Automatic annotation (TrEMBL):
Residues 6-85 form the DUF6455 domain. It comes from Ruegeria aquimaris. It holds the Pfam family DUF6455. This is DUF6455 family protein. InterPro entries: DUF6455. It comes from the Bacteria.
Amino acid sequence: MPQIPLGDIERHFWLTRSVARSMGVSFTEAMVQGKVTENDYAEVVTRCRAADCSEKCQHWLATQSCSAQVAPEFCVNADLLNRLR
């Protein structure tokens, strides 16, 4: 099975966290409330690292002027982020 190259962990951690924040989602609060486990959060960042949408994500983040109602369609974590909103 071929391995998928993963992007920089720090960059994707911040991209994931920034998209969540722009939607009013706090992964820290979600973990405290039992909606997300630490492993779930690690998987979210890993999925982001494996996706090829960093440039789209950065552009989307740059265009957000207020709280986003939904995650961007191209986001590999959109389903989870939309459920947490």
